[in-house]
């Protein structure tokens, strides 16, 4: 198959006069982006970030940024004939991503480190590196689109293939960064990308997609937190929302909101009902894990911090009565109808039209113009608190 024409990446400039830095992770997506742009005649420079101590992650399938991935990126660059650089960002990654991840988990939150990586490393430090290299554009293999809106600003949109859409992890991208960023795969299906990789003769054509957080290749998040913040691992009680103490736990880092399995309560069912129990809330300050039936997970609203607005106009100019949006409170959930209510600089409340489930502090809540594919991303923020759909104030723990 032939690649779709990626021209023009920069208005008024020919491909030969346009330098593009491609963030090459060693996976099939970014490799195809580099090959596609090289074929189109662009001046391509490949950059791979060394983000953490490879350790046991080397050669492990499904983990990004490991030693094998760096070798794969180098091989692809050699195959298509572009210069390739490996940049050591380990210290910055540890400070901005890993330490924050551990602190967030230890405080009872469910962090999204991929957002922090994009926000502080890939689209911040790498952004500056691209500028230093004289780049006219910085391209990545993310499944999103960016194009001009009616006001002449570059805007971010969901990918055409909803199951591949990665816009949830890119809400913190700024308007300034969008002027430099390019996402050539936004209109592609994954099957098309792999077909292109085979046509280009890339060794990564059949390489599995990343599944785990890159610095947690085992998928055991609690082990990372225990190693980085052992003082935060405090045993405590597992408590039903009605106040009954059901058992004990070895640390809140072993639990996330919405979790059903592995609660350490035998059958994980309440004493007087056949319904399974779920983690409803985590009270890290008192080392308590609060559990309840599935309906107790329903959330009517969430308060947000560090809101980033990339929609039309300015966040400060939104009407005080709010704006109708579609909100996505988990990366695995589709956007749902909601109202966005600004509450000062960088803060907002999202009120869901119909209760959402499994909404957890620490995660991102991303806003869209509508609920369909190719919807414009308006921005997002981090969840700092949630409001239960059912008023449980009389039953929630107060002691």
Short description:
This protein is an alpha/beta fold and 399 residues long. The chain contains 7 helices and 17 strands.
Q: Would you count the extended β strands for me?
A: 17
Give the number of domains.
3
Overall mean pLDDT stands at 87
| Whole-angstrom Rg | 22 Å
Q: State the low-pLDDT regions, or none.
A: 54-63, 392-399
Helix content: 10-25%
User: What would the CATH topology of the largest domain be?
Assistant: Rossmann fold
The helix/strand order is EHEHEHHEEEHEHHEEEEEEEEEE
Describe the model.
It is a single chain. By secondary structure, the protein is α/β, with parallel strands linked by helices. The chain folds into three domains: 15-141 and 184-199, Rossmann fold (3-Layer(aba) Sandwich), CATH 3.40.50; 234-296, Roll (SH3 type barrels), CATH 2.30.30.280; 298-388, Elongation Factor Tu (Ef-tu), domain 3 (Beta Barrel), CATH 2.40.30. It contains seven helices and 17 strands. It has helices at 28-39, 67-80, 90-106, 113-132, 175-180, 190-199, 221-228, and strands at 19-23, 43-50, 84-88, 137-139, 144-148, 154-158, 181-182, 236-240, 245-249, 278-283, 288-292, 299-309, 323-328, 336-342, 348-356, 364-368, 377-388. The strands form four sheets. Strands 12-15-14-13-16-17 form a six-stranded antiparallel barrel. Strand 10 and strand 11 (288-292) form a beta hairpin. The longest helix is centred in the N-terminal third of the chain and has 20 residues, at 113-132. The protein is globular. 45% of the residues are buried. Residues 54-63 and 392-399 have low confidence and may be disordered.
């Amino acid at each position: 198959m032939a690649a779709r024409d990626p021209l023009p990446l920069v208005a008024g400039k020919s491909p030969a006069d346009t330098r593009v830095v491609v963030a090459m992770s060693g996976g099939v997506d970014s490799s195809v982006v580099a090959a596609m742009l090289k074929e189109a005649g662009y001046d391509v420079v490949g950059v791979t970030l060394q983000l953490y101590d490879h350790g046991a992650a080397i050669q492990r399938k499904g983990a990004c940024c490991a030693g094998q991935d760096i070798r794969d990126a180098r091989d692809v660059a050699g195959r298509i004939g572009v210069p390739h650089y490996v940049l050591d960002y380990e210290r910055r990654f540890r400070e901005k991503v890993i330490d924050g991840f551990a602190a967030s988990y230890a405080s009872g939150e469910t962090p999204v480190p991929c957002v922090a990586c994009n926000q502080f490393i890939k689209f911040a430090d790498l952004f500056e590196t691209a500028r230093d290299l004289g780049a006219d554009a910085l391209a990545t293999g993310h499944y999103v689109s960016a194009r001009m809106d009616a006001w002449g600003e570059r805007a971010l949109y969901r990918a055409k293939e909803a199951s591949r859409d990665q816009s949830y992890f890119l809400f913190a991208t700024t308007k300034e960064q969008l002027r430099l960023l390019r996402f050539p795969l936004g209109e592609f299906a994954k099957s098309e990308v792999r077909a292109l990789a085979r046509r280009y003769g890339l060794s990564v054509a059949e390489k599995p997609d990343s599944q785990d957080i890159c610095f947690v290749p085992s998928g055991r998040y609690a082990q990372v937190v225990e190693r980085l913040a052992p003082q935060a691992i405090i045993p405590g009680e597992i408590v039903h929302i009605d106040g009954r103490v059901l058992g004990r736990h070895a640390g809140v880092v072993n639990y996330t909101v919405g979790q059903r399995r592995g609660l350490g309560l035998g059958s994980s069912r309440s004493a007087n009902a056949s319904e399974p129990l779920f983690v409803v809330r985590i009270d890290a300050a008192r080392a308590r894990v609060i559990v309840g039936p599935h309906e107790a997970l329903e959330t009517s609203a969430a308060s947000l911090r560090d809101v980033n607005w990339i929609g039309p106009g300015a966040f400060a100019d939104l009407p005080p009565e709010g704006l109708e949006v579609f909100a996505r409170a988990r990366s695995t959930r589709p956007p749902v109808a909601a109202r966005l209510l600004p509450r000062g600089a960088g803060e907002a409340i999202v009120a869901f039209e119909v209760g959402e489930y499994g909404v957890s502090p620490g995660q991102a809540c991303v806003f869209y113009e509508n609920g369909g594919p190719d919807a414009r991303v308006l921005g997002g923020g981090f969840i700092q608190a949630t409001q239960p759909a059912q008023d449980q104030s009389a039953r929630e723990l107060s002691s």
